[in-house]
Structure formats: C-alpha cells, structure tokens
Amino acid sequence: MLSYQHLYHAGNLADVHKHALLATTLDYLTRKDKPLTYVETHAGRGLYDLTAPEAVKTGEAAKGIAIAEGWFPTTHPYARALAATRDQRGATFYPGSPLIAGHLLRETDSIHLCELHPQEHAALDYASAPFGAKVYHEDGLAKALSICPPTPRRGMALIDPSYEVKTDYETIPRVVGQLHRKWNVGIIYLWYPILREGYHKPMLAEIKAVAPEALIHEVRFPPVRDGHRMEGSGMVMINPPYGIETETKRLTGLFRKLG
C-alpha cells in the first residue's frame, strides 16, 4: 500500500484531465470573497521534477503535459498554476494537486492534505509549507470523514487514490456516501483510472446509487507504452460548480484528437 510513488506518473494525461477540472473548480470557488476549505485524501509529494529518472523512465509526462500544455491558454487556472510553480521552483517542475490548490487558493482558505507514505509525506510537508497547509501523516479517507463538515463549510474534497489496493474500489463508494451525507454542501471529486479490466464500473454503479446527481466525466487516450493498462481517466463530481460542463466538453474534444 505504501509502495506507490506518483513521480513515475506525474504530468501524464490522467493528471492533465484531473488537474484541469480541479483548477477550473477552484477558480470558480475563489470568485466569491467567502473563505473555503480544501481537503485532499491522497496528496502525494505535491511537487515533481519531470527530469528525475523516475519520470524519464516511464515517459508519461513526455506524452502528457508536454503534449497537452498548448490546450490551455495562459489565463486558464491550470496554466496559471503551472506557471507559478515553474517561476518559484524551476522550469522542469510540475505541481501535484496540493500545489495547484496552493497557488489558486487564498490566505483566508484552509488546506488539509493527507499522505501515508513516509517519504512522500515529508516531501509534501516541505512543498506545501509556503501555503500554510495542514499536512497529516494519516489515512486520508478516515481523516476526511473526521474533518468534515469542515470550517469553513464551503469548499471541496479531492479523493485521488492510487488504486493499487484493490479493496479501494469497494471501500470508496461507502466513504463517498458517508462524506456526502456529512457534508451535503461540499463539492466532492473522485478521480479513477480507466483500466482495460474495467475495475471502475461496479464502483461507479455504487456511487450513483448514493449520489444519483453526480456528474461523471471520462476521457480516453492511447496507452503510453506497450502493455500499459490505463486507457483513460475519469472523475466523479458531486455538487460540481455551475459551468463545469463547459470545461468537460472542451476537454472531451481535445482528448479525442489524440486518437
């Protein structure tokens, strides 16, 4: 369970999908002066050097953000977070979800980040320090349930597991249902990989049973290398903000061009 390190996959097409939707949502939320809460259950290290041997070995960033960056004008919140990260950390760095949130949120907002992997947690603690985030070396799903409903009540949670633990597909619908009941005004996003085996399908059916109003957006893309099992990326969005479908439709069209 603690073997997963996102550095091998940072900046891939699934990250592009997930982070574009996250950034768009946070941008919408910050248009109002009211403070908000951001909770992330599987935060990773938060900051990734795409020239590191791990990233170069898989080549996923080279076939991900390196290709897709041109999809986002400089005014897009995802592009703004990318630019801010590079300005502060260097041209080869890529922001994970915690740093995208950090760059787009304000001092009045609260950030809660969870990560169990010891080395990843230590790196996350360092990378997120400038944003005043609270970083927990705890199980993220349990922590989210203990935090929520948070103060401020306005805000969102991102659930982004690696799914290396197969029981995640069984556990997550229950947790999402509990979280939605406890924090009925909260925006809850759940990312999942689309693997050729279709492990996500029963999970989605269970989530739709507890949150029938949820918006589900999926994109497909060619496997990054021979034998690679991930063929797409999906996001469940509960209580998504007004206008998010403009971005989902735009992303659908862009991903279709990849063939």
Automatic annotation (TrEMBL):
<comment type="function">
    <text>Specifically methylates the adenine in position 2030 of 23S rRNA.</text>
</comment>
<keyword id="KW-0698">rRNA processing</keyword>
<keyword id="KW-0694">RNA-binding</keyword>
<keyword id="KW-0489">Methyltransferase</keyword>
<feature type="binding site">
    <location>
        <position position="97"/>
    </location>
    <ligand>
        <name>S-adenosyl-L-methionine</name>
    </ligand>
</feature>
<feature type="binding site">
    <location>
        <position position="160"/>
    </location>
    <ligand>
        <name>S-adenosyl-L-methionine</name>
    </ligand>
</feature>
<feature type="binding site">
    <location>
        <begin position="139"/>
        <end position="140"/>
    </location>
    <ligand>
        <name>S-adenosyl-L-methionine</name>
    </ligand>
</feature>
<dbReference type="InterPro" id="IPR007473">
    <property type="entry name" value="RlmJ"/>
</dbReference>
<comment type="subunit">
    <text>Monomer.</text>
</comment>
<dbReference type="InterPro" id="IPR029063">
    <property type="entry name" value="SAM-dependent_MTases_sf"/>
</dbReference>
<feature type="binding site">
    <location>
        <position position="19"/>
    </location>
    <ligand>
        <name>S-adenosyl-L-methionine</name>
    </ligand>
</feature>
<feature type="site" description="Interaction with substrate rRNA">
    <location>
        <position position="4"/>
    </location>
</feature>
<comment type="similarity">
    <text>Belongs to the RlmJ family.</text>
</comment>
<protein>
    <recommendedName>
        <fullName>Ribosomal RNA large subunit methyltransferase J</fullName>
        <ecNumber>2.1.1.266</ecNumber>
    </recommendedName>
</protein>
<feature type="active site" description="Proton acceptor">
    <location>
        <position position="160"/>
    </location>
</feature>
<keyword id="KW-0808">Transferase</keyword>
<feature type="binding site">
    <location>
        <position position="42"/>
    </location>
    <ligand>
        <name>S-adenosyl-L-methionine</name>
    </ligand>
</feature>
<dbReference type="Pfam" id="PF04378">
    <property type="entry name" value="RsmJ"/>
</dbReference>
<feature type="binding site">
    <location>
        <position position="115"/>
    </location>
    <ligand>
        <name>S-adenosyl-L-methionine</name>
    </ligand>
</feature>
<keyword id="KW-0949">S-adenosyl-L-methionine</keyword>
